[in-house]
Design goal:
Shape: globular
Strand order of the largest sheet: 3-6-2-1-9-13-14-12
CATH class: Alpha Beta
Largest sheet: 8 strands, mixed
Radius of gyration: 17 Å
Helix content: 25-40%
Number of domains: 1
Number of helices: 10
CATH architecture: 3-Layer(aba) Sandwich
């Protein structure tokens, strides 16, 4: 029988640890700082990270999110799996530098999709590594799909499955902005930070934002966040590019961001 853990679930967004506009471009300083934040918090965590420019560029080019449409996609599929492992190695290495022993659990080997939905994840591996005191790290990746042959397993899908299993005390999403806004704060100076995000928030947002990557729009991400909060304690969206915010959030301190409030399960 597995021992229960009081733990945190952390999502390092692809836009935080990579420059999403430039293929295979790390934000190494941000990765190092986030790793340090996790280490100094003293909290046990499961870490999920996005694929950023290591995944989305080639995946979009080959339309991998649609599943198998032809043999021409296969080289792109293989390239994405190679690229996201390179990003994951950078995260694993940064964690090791600050004294966190971690293990990579790639969705291509531990997850299965059905028609684009995550329907299988070998959660026993997460339990067993945690029992050894090793931090599991998983990430957005290509995974096999029972109906489409393959597809994209997103970090948000992984967050939901892990939250359902582990019921974390705190769920933290690190974005490249201060939280959820009424508009795009990078292009709209009138955009306002939404301090509490709930179902009414989602329904009230203007449906004018486009899908920036192959894992879906901001609306789909908020929808997933609302479900995820049903399985854990506090959930917040913070700016992972701001020094110290992840560490403060892990310790339960008040930080600038958006609190996500869902239902209960």
């Amino acid at each position: 029988m597995f021992r229960p853990f009081i733990m945190m679930l952390v999502k390092l967004g692809g836009s935080v640890i990579t420059d999403k506009a430039r293929y295979r471009t790390l934000r190494q300083e941000a990765i190092n700082r986030l790793a340090e934040d996790i280490a100094t918090s003293g909290e046990k965590a499961i870490i999920v990270h996005g694929a950023g420019s290591f995944g989305h560029v080639i995946a979009a080019e080959h339309q991998l999110q649609k599943g198998y449409t032809g043999e021409a996609q296969i080289p792109g599929m293989a390239r994405v799996m190679e690229d996201v492992r390179a990003l994951n190695l950078a995260v694993i290495s940064a964690l090791g530098e600050v004294g966190i022993s971690s293990v990579s659990l790639p969705p291509s080997t531990v997850a299965e999709l059905t028609d684009g939905k995550l329907t299988g994840l070998d959660l026993s591996l997460f339990h067993r590594y945690l029992d050894l005191g090793i931090t599991p790290v998983t990430f957005g990746d290509v995974a096999l799909d029972r109906t489409r042959r393959f597809g994209i397993c997103s970090g948000d899908q992984l967050m939901e499955s892990l939250a359902r299993e582990f019921r974390p005390e705190r769920i933290i999403f690190c974005a490249d902005v201060d939280g959820v806004f009424t508009g795009d704060p990078k292009s709209d100076p009138e955009a306002k930070l939404i301090e509490v995000v709930d179902r009414r928030t989602l329904d009230s947002l203007p449906r004018t934002q486009s899908c920036a990557d192959v894992t879906g729009s901001i609306f789909g991400k908020i929808e997933t966040m609302l479900r995820i909060t049903s399985y854990g304690g506090e959930a917040v969206v913070i700016n992972g590019l701001r020094p110290g915010r992840l560490g403060a959030a892990l310790r339960g301190e008040d930080v600038l961001g958006s609190k996500v409030v869902g239902g209960s399960q």
